[in-house]
Design a protein that fits this description.
With 419 residues, the chain is an alpha/beta fold. It has 13 helices and 14 strands. The protein is 37% helix and 15% strand. Keywords: Cytoplasm, Isomerase, Porphyrin biosynthesis, Pyridoxal phosphate.
Length: 419
């Protein structure tokens, strides 16, 4: 059935898909009938343990009963008003109560919209034009963010022929992740409006910040009057209720959020200091508007998801699953005498074969991607779905119970023993 649907899709969509990483599953993507808990059920009758989880939003697994019930209640009340609703206040209050930098919030519809707005806001607030970003950091699919980006964008030359003017390069300065020396040199010599960073890289695989990196960024941006923007679209409410900024105790000026705060529905947000956020229209001159901003369904799903995270041991289950699988992979790869490293933090991890350490995008690019894809393909046949790209993150959820972990470990053992 998936093959039939794929042939139809090729006639309708560029490359047969609506986001490029979905075409990375070969020879064609599988099509999903439903998701429930830790599992995806395909139209071909296969059950898959899911470690993609919508690329991060589904920290409670698929179709969490509480979130689903709240969405149903909201559907009965309508799903688009074009005027404010109580739920947007409730979700903003939840975010403000947990995310240290979030004094005020502006809701948008995706992580891409959030980072695009944060960059515009930094420029409007500082009256400067240039942005500093890091090689391999992915901040969505808009022009400024796609300069040396991670995720699927790393597979494409997006400049010129990809529709992005080379003049964009004049407004974006690049440094390597974890390279404070480059950051300081740039801030000394350039008028930088803001430094945008993934506090944990999640789109070149998982890459962790060095001990002093995030604190160093905070000190340098303060010293040179630039804004520090944490892109927490992935890490927000993933590393804990306070996100990466709470986990590492480093407070940025602006934070972009998405994924988990929408409970699996489309969402994005920019949060930050009052005096910065108040520069947005209608109180300021930095323009932002959107028909679907603060959509009631997304607001409802987000509030419900955070309520579950606040009141259950969801984080403990998800983090335990990631640790146990990572530990097993460490033992399996070691017995095979493979050169490898596994980067993990809380409920997100990735393994890299052929390299001893991965601290920046260049390190990640040296990993054996062909072998990673072989492992992905063999696991898929055994009913385990990990991302079809070395440059994505393996996520776990509160639905990844001991039973699910055991299924996964058994599949990994079979695959690694065949390598």
């Amino acid at each position: 059935m998936s093959e039939i649907l794929w042939r139809r899709a090729l006639e309708l969509f560029a490359g047969g898909v609506n986001s490029p990483v979905r075409a990375a599953v070969k020879p064609y993507p599988f099509y999903v009938e439903k998701g429930e808990g830790a599992f995806l059920y395909t139209v071909d009758g296969q059950r898959l343990v899911d470690y993609v989880l919508g690329y991060g939003p589904l920290i409670l697994g698929h179709a969490n009963p509480y979130v689903k019930e709240k969405i149903k209640e909201q559907i009965d009340k309508g799903w688009l008003y074009g005027t404010p609703s109580k739920k947007e206040i409730e979700l903003a209050e939840k975010i403000r109560s947990h995310i240290p930098s979030a004094e005020k919030v502006r809701f948008v519809n995706s992580g891409t919209e959030a980072t695009m707005l944060a960059i515009r806001l930094a420029r409007g607030y500082t009256k400067r034009e240039k942005i500093l970003k890091f090689d391999g950091n992915y901040h969505g699919a808009h022009d400024y963010a796609l300069v040396s980006a991670g995720s699927a964008a790393s597979e494409y030359n997006v400049l010129i022929s990809g529709g992005i003017p080379t003049s964009i390069l004049n407004t974006v300065v690049l440094c390597k992740y974890n390279d404070l020396e480059c950051v300081e040199k740039t801030l000394k010599t350039e008028q930088i409006a803001g430094v945008i960073v993934e506090p944990v890289m999640g789109n070149m695989g998982v890459i962790l910040p060095d001990k002093d990196f995030l604190n160093g960024l905070r000190e340098l941006t303060k010293a040179y009057n630039s804004l520090l923007i944490f892109d927490e679209v992935i890490t927000g409410f993933r590393l804990g209720l306070s996100g990466a900024q709470g986990y590492f105790n480093v407070i940025p000026d602006l934070t972009t959020l998405g994924k988990i705060i929408g409970g699996g529905l489309p969402i994005g947000a920019v949060a930050g200091k009052k005096e910065i956020i108040d520069n947005l229209t209608p109180s300021g001159k930095v323009f932002n508007a959107g028909t679907f901003n603060a959509n009631p369904l997304s607001m409802t799903a987000g509030v419900a998801t955070i309520e579950v995270l606040e009141t259950t041991n969801a984080y403990d289950i998800a983090n335990k699953a990631a640790k146990e699988i990572s530990d097993e992979l460490n033992a399996l790869f070691s017995r095979k005498n493979l050169e490898f490293t596994i980067n993990r933090i809380q409920s997100m991890f990735q393994f890299f074969i052929g390299v001893k350490k991965v601290t920046n995008a260049d390190d990640a690019r040296l990993a054996n991607r062909e072998l990673y894809i072989k492992i992905h393909e063999k696991l898929l046949k055994l009913g385990v779905f990990i991302p079809p790209s070395q440059f994505e993150t393996i996520f776990t959820s509160s639905a990844h119970t001991d039973e699910v972990i055991n299924i996964t470990i058994e599949a990994f053992r079979k695959v690694v023993n065949e390598i």
